[in-house]
Amino acid sequence: MVVRILGAVIFNALFWVPVSLIWAWVFEPHSGVLSGVAAVAPYAFQVQWFAAAVGIVWFVWRVYRAGRYARSWSYAERGEDLCITRGLWYKNLTIVPYGRLQIAKVDAGPLDRLLGLATVTLVTASAHSNASIPGLPAAEAERLRDRLIEVGDTLGSGL
Amino acid sequence: MTVPYGPQPPTYPDPTPADPYGATPAEPGTRLDARPSASEPAVTKVVERAHPLTPLVRGWVAVVAVGWALLQERLQGRDGTEHLPWWVFVSLIGGVATLGLIAGFISWRFTKFIADENELRVESGWISRRSRRISYTRLQSVDVMQPLAPRLLGLAEVRIDAGAHDSTKLRYLSRRRAYELRDFLMLRAHGAQVSVDAARARTSDPLFADVGGRDRVIATVPPHELLLGAIVSHDLLSLILGFAVPITLAWFIATYFGGHGAAAIPVFAVAGGVPLVLSIGQYFARRVMAQFNFTLAETQAGLRITRGLTNLTSQTVPVRRIQSIRLSQPLFWRPLRRYRVDLEVLGLGEATRNESTSKVSTLLLPIGTRAQVDAALAAVWPGLRLDAISYVRSPRRAILFDPLAYTWNAFGTDENVVVTRRGWLTRHQSIVPHARLQSVAAYQGPLERLLGLANVSFHTTGLLHQHAVIHMNADIARTLVYDEADRAMTSRDSELLR
């Protein structure tokens, strides 16, 4: 963390803030449960052992991927824009100028709330710009939203 | 009522500048049916009603439908209706017509269009009253539509887009009043404090055009160009193939497996040929009728697009509201050097890309030569020089993804716009001003990462496809994203300062 902040200051690089790793437990549970069932079910039906092995490998892989996928999300504030990166196989980098912000909203589903997380979504006038940052700690999400609205107000421009 | 929208008493320029973001608040606390009291300052206010013939126009479709249904019942003689004498049917139709007329009259009686200093109000409804307010500063575009039936009676519909999803329709006004209201609204949208009669120099009221005295015609598309575009199009080819392939297959099967092949040939020829000829005829007729006498003109209030044979459509788009423009060139148009131009405007919620309809569309030019395209572009962005932009193209290894288009894939920027090119069956060229950009994104799939390629898309508030440049060198794409965000910021700022 210190290295990254120093890097951001010294080399004028972007300071990418990762989303919370706990978020992996939010988007993964159904797939995790499913693969858990897939791992256990073969015993119940007395199928070949390798079916169970496949289920277990799949489960471990999903859990591993979930962590990596959660870690692939991060955001950075860059001058008058917000940058969001995401994705492992399909990588995406979205840049939304603060001046284009129409709505900034914070959502939290039941699982999110249980884990103290929230999603910040930036809405612009374009239907295509799909900019949301999931898995932020609730306090940080609210701080980010307030900051976005504040900056968006000062930089806001018409259509 | 005899003097539409003016001459108004002299209005003095507002000491506070007009709000550039259109955030002028509506007057608070006004009841729907509030009337200006005597103590309020005299506001220039025009109250307008729909044309008295409106109920007739709105009702005739229902009358014809009911009449047709009854006639069919009568002819087919279903369920003992044949016992009933003819006057029952006539009175039924008459009753429906009367009911429709009464309903139309009530809705006409309670509909008012009020144009005052800052906004246009549309009040309607008898049982549940409804009042729509449109601030002049928020107007995106105003169109005058003349479907056949109203047009025969000299009526027109004014359609106002203010950025919401559905447009406000004022139907119907007399054609002249519709044009005048449109001109008034568009001028007010540009912030001019004018009375329309003074600003306007319309001398005639031509039937097939909507060009005032001071308007400058930029491009017209004659019918033979439309026909040319319709003939060498993918639509026609797919139409023919869509008929030809199943018919040929059926004929083939009948000939070689059916046993009596020779007898089957004329049957298939007729079965396939007649609908094919009919639908090709319909295709040509629709397309030419919808785009007939297409005229692009520059007026005081923005670009005006007028077109149509039976249904006259007249769209007016303020140049400043144009979010992006796209040039497309289908495969067969390339040797002809013809282009089609579409534009994006915020709030054209119901706009279509279809060329064969009289509805509000994104078309800026259905088919045009390079010179016409340049003229149209110059009318929108006078400083733009497409030839002067140098393009960065896809690297050669993109041939794996785009064997036919990797030489065309490219992007280029100047200080005002970013231009992207893609597509092989139809070559697209999108022009997006930096100042109109909503967000930028780069994306990359696993295979593209192996080859070091990436895509960049530019998001506008539009209806057209995303403006994207695909399969660029990944490093170039990364720099492009960040640079484009910077350029968007600076042009936004400079536009605000202007």
- Largest interface: pair, residues per side: A-B, 27 and 36 residues
Task: Give me the side-by-side strand order of the main sheet of chain B.
Answer: 7-6-5-11-10-9-8
User: In the CATH scheme, what's the topology name of the largest domain in chain A?
Assistant: PH-domain like
Q: Return the CATH class of the largest domain in chain A.
A: Mainly Beta
> Which shape of chain A, going by the Cα principal axes?
elongated
CATH architecture of the largest domain in chain A: Roll
DSSP summary, beta strand count of chain A = 7
First and last CA, distance of chain B: 40 Å
Structural class of chain A: alpha+beta
Tell me what portion of residues of chain B adopts beta-strand conformation. Answer: 25-35%
Structural class of chain B: alpha+beta
Element order, helices and strands of chain A? Answer: HEHHHEEEEHEEH
By DSSP (H or I, 4+ residues per run), the number of helices of chain B equals 11
Biggest pleated sheet of chain B: 7 strands, antiparallel
When the domains of chain A are counted, the total is 2
Protein described:
- The complex is a heterodimer of chains A (159) and B (498).
- By secondary structure, chain A is α+β, with helices and mostly antiparallel strands.
- Chain A has 2 domains: 99 residues, PH-domain like (Roll); 46 residues.
- Chain A is built from 6 helices and 7 strands.
- In chain A, strands 1-2-3-4 form a 4-stranded antiparallel β-sheet.
- The model of chain A has no long low-confidence stretch (mean pLDDT 81).
- By secondary structure, chain B is of the alpha+beta class.
- Among the domains of chain B are: 91 residues, no CATH class; 175 residues, no CATH class.
- Chain B contains 11 helices and 21 strands.
- In chain B, strand 10 and strand 11 form a beta hairpin.
- Chain B is flat.
- Classes of the chains: A alpha+beta (159), B alpha+beta (498).
- At the A-B interface, strand 4 of A face strand 19 and helix 11 of B.
